[in-house]
Amino acid sequence: MKQEENISLGGLKTGEGGIIISKLDDLLNWSRLSSLWPVGFGLACCAIEFMSTASSAYDLDRFGVIPRNSPRQADVMIVSGTVTFKMADRVKRLYEQMADPKYVISMGSCANCGGPYWEHGYHVLKGVDRVIPVDVYVPGCPPRPEALIGGFLKLQEKIRTESIMRPKALEKLMKKDAV
What we know:
The protein has 179 residues and is of the alpha/beta class. It is built from six helices and seven strands, in the order E-E-E-H-E-H-E-H-E-H-E-H-H. The strands form two sheets. A four-stranded parallel β-sheet has the order 4-5-6-7. Strand 6, helix 4 (109-113) and strand 7 (136-138) form a beta-alpha-beta unit. Its cofactor is [4Fe-4S] cluster. Residues 45-155 form the NADH:ubiquinone oxidoreductase-like 20kDa subunit domain. [4Fe-4S] cluster binds at residues 45-46, 110, 141. Keywords: 4Fe-4S, Cell membrane, Iron, Iron-sulfur, Membrane, Metal-binding, NAD, Quinone, Translocase, Transport.
């Protein structure tokens, strides 16, 4: 008797018969984490590091990360650089134009906490998380391309554990009703 061999692909199981058995959540999460499209939006020196991460030396394409020019085609926003109070409204508007599910990576010290400018400047926002929700923080001034790739990997881990049966919008409504 031949023993059946199963191969596991991130929750998907295949046998000899060519049939794939999985949960819908696993399939949808796999497809979303394998095709992250960030909006090409840079504010300061961290944007140069993002551009170098997309170059052939680091090759973000192997992770399925393809920068887009329009927020309506993107599902990830990378806030890279200093966010001023004047720019905060525009960042929020771009975030609202993105389709759900959408994710935010805050890249660099300036986007994370205002960097060296917030203490002596009246015009710098102390972290982009005061305007839009942030999913992954990438530290550094400016962070190396390897750190941004690590941020994408953390975001992929987060997406892998999400459930379509419990959307974020429904959770927010449930919290409002409980209060």
